[in-house]
Design a protein that fits this description.
heterodimer, A: 164 residues, alpha/beta, Rossmann fold, four-stranded parallel beta sheet, 4 strands, 37% helix, B: 259 residues, seven-stranded parallel beta sheet, 7 helices
């Protein structure tokens, strides 16, 4: 089975959970092979890779602390045992300890209630963001036809940023 | 929004466009034609408008016998004609799911040389036309609580260019219009975005490419002009379910333009 990303190899940091996971599955669904660097979510990473292999693509998890260039080099060496190229790099991993705004407590944000209310009332499309919606925007940027898109920041925010 | 592992007909992520209806203004040539073919190729029924070139418009239909494409002559500057056109499309196909405001003209000249007609033609076509088509189509989208509007802007909206005061002002207006309408209709689940092409290989940009090609290329990070199909791809994304949470955005497709 072929797709627009057949023959491409993607390297998706933080691909074991959340947006990264949705992104890994979307790109694999479009034909890409996927390597997933993870920090400490070994089981989740292995489970995503298994799902991708079930789709007939190559996929492997590689352990790395992306804040440490030495372990990234080691991860790339491991990556090279399976793959001879990389076409798509998605730097998705975020600082551990970040939480969805809805899971934060007053400890994280003294004005949380206020911020949540503002997000709800201000966002034109409403507070309904899910990981797949971000993954779909990344998918656009991975397509061969998007070759002339370079530089801009594509907001997937329901219009929050332009509405204040 | 796509369901994971659900594969589209071309093997890519599902775009949810098959069986839906689109209107594209200025679809007979260049970027507009590529947009018509991209959306129709995704299984949409596409009605496009043209103004001057009937032969080119008929070609778009005749050269795509397997796609659902209709050409209608409409002057976007005439609001009554636009209202009648939108109603006739709605009566024929039943919904207006996607509106692409692509029609635009260029009348470049240094400011002291610009005639009244150069101002009027550019503003009436490039921005008043967008008001007319959106005003006529939005009520149909509101009643369905669904719709996507894509306006074709330009890199000129943000970057200054000699001889482009009228054109860049009209495109800057499109960007502002896009953001305000996005806020106005977002609660009705209608999304409004723009695509801002850089220099694309079309008839319309031929003069400026002939005149200042080397200077232009030296300012493009990727060192080449864009293709109409590359703009059509960005429009396709914004039309589709893949951009379900994207609104009020100006998506540049310009190969990275430097000041």
């Amino acid at each position: 089975m072929s797709g627009p990303l057949s023959g491409k190899v993607a390297f998706i940091s933080g691909g074991s959970r959340g947006i990264g996971r949705a992104n890994a599955l979307t790109l694999a669904g479009a034909g890409a092979d996927v390597a997933i660097p993870y920090y400490n979510s070994h089981e989740e990473a292995e489970s995503v890779c298994e799902e991708i292999r079930g789709m007939g693509r190559k996929s492997m998890p590689v352990q790395a602390d992306i804040s440490n260039s030495k372990t990234v080099d080691e991860a790339l060496e491991e990556f090279e045992t399976e793959f001879d190229r990389v076409d798509l790099v998605v730097s998705n991993a975020a600082l551990r300890g970040l939480k969805p705004a809805t899971d934060m407590t007053l400890k994280h944000f003294p004005n949380r209630e206020h911020l949540l209310e503002e997000y709800k009332t201000r966002t034109p499309l409403g507070p309904t963001l899910v990981p797949e919606q971000v993954a779909d925007a990344i998918y656009l940027l991975c397509l061969p036809e998007s070759a002339m898109i370079t530089g801009p920041t594509l907001f997937v925010d329901g219009g929050y940023a332009i509405s204040g | 929004m796509s369901e994971k592992n659900n594969i589209n007909s071309d093997g890519g992520a599902p775009d949810g466009l098959a069986g839906k209806n689109a209107i594209v203004t200025g679809g007979s040539r260049g970027i507009g034609r590529a947009i018509v073919e991209r959306l129709a190729g995704s299984g949409m029924d596409v009605t496009f408008t043209y103004l001057g070139n009937e032969e080119a418009a008929n070609k778009v239909v005749s050269e795509n016998p397997d796609l659902s494409i209709t050409a209608v002559k409409v002057d976007g500057r005439d609001s009554e004609a636009v209202n009648a056109f939108i109603e006739s499309v709605y009566d024929r196909v039943g919904t207006i799911d996607v509106l692409v405001n692509n029609a635009g003209v260029i009348r470049d000249n240094l400011l002291p040389m610009l005639e009244d007609e150069d101002l009027e033609t550019v503003f009436k076509t490039n921005i008043e036309g967008v008001f007319h088509f959106c005003r006529a189509a939005v009520p149909f989208m509101m009643s369905k609580r669904s719709g996507s509007i894509i306006n074709i802007s330009s890199v000129s909206a943000e970057k200054g260019g000699r001889g482009q005061t009228n054109y860049s002002a009209s495109k800057g207006a499109i960007n502002s219009f896009t953001k305000s309408l996005a806020v106005e209709v977002g609660r009705r689940k209608i999304r409004v975005n723009a695509v801002a092409p850089g220099v694309i290989e079309t008839e319309m940009s031929k003069d400026v490419r002939d005149l200042a090609g080397d200077e232009i290329i030296s300012n493009i990070v990727l060192k080449r002009y864009g293709l109409p199909s590359e703009i059509a791809n960005a429009v396709w994304f914004l039309a589709s379910d893949l951009s379900a949470y994207v609104t009020g955005q100006i998506l540049s497709v310009d190969g990275g333009f430097k000041m």
